[in-house]
Amino acid sequence: MDEFVWSDTPSRTAVPVAKAGLPLIAGAAFATLILSLLGMSVLAVAGLLATFCLCAFFRDPDRVTPKRPGAVVSPADGKVVFAGVADGGEFAQGECLRVSIFMSVFNVHVNRIPAEGRVVRVSYRPGQFVAADRSDAFHRNEHNAVFVETDYGKKLCFVQVAGLIARRIICHVQPDDRVRRGQRFGMICFGSRLDVYLPSDISLTVSVGDKVRAGTSILGCFTTNDRSM
Question: Is 2.70.70.10 the CATH classification of the domain at 71-221?
Answer without folding.
Answer: yes
